[in-house]
Amino acid sequence: MPVSITVNGKHHRLDVAADTPLLYVLRNDLQLNGPKFGCGEAQCGACTVLVGGNATYSCVFPVGAVGQAHVSTVEGLGLGEGERLHALQKAFLAEQAAQCGYCSSGMLMAAKALLARNPNPDPATIRRELAGQKCRCGAHNRIVRAIERAAQELRA
């Protein structure tokens, strides 16, 4: 059954089953490898993308449930800015907020959803909002600082 979705501003019509996890469509059909397969059970956050602006675990989200919502992946994060790095990406680099980098795309997308709802989050709010994003390297303190830095830049 054909499924139509818009990802990072580009419309796609795909011949996939509606119950196929969005992550598989993004990685296998669209070759967008930013979202990672971590656990496959919505427990780690490595697969987080935005669906209609909401942080969503794409490993358990059926592509057929996307409907008319737009999907954003880390590959599209800076696209609205002339293909430059987004403030979050710059802040992650400046704060050295990625060690192995496996969680980074999920962290970035969850942070983008947070900052869209709350442009001035305090560290406790950031930590609470990122509770579903796991970083096994232990970069959480740097990630929180990076999100604070990006929030400040985006407000300026």
TrEMBL record:
Q: Which UniProt keywords apply?
A: 2Fe-2S, Iron, Iron-sulfur, Metal-binding, Oxidoreductase
List GO molecular-function terms, semicolon-separated: 2 iron, 2 sulfur cluster binding; metal ion binding; oxidoreductase activity
* Domain named 2Fe-2S ferredoxin-type: residues: 1-77
Q: Which Pfam families match?
A: Fer2, Fer2_2
Output the InterPro entries linked to this UniProt entry: 2Fe-2S-bd, 2Fe-2S-bd_dom_sf, 2Fe-2S_ferredoxin-like_sf, 2Fe-2S_ferredoxin-type, 2Fe2S_fd_BS, Beta-grasp_dom_sf, Diverse_Oxidoreductases
Protein name, entry field: (2Fe-2S)-binding protein
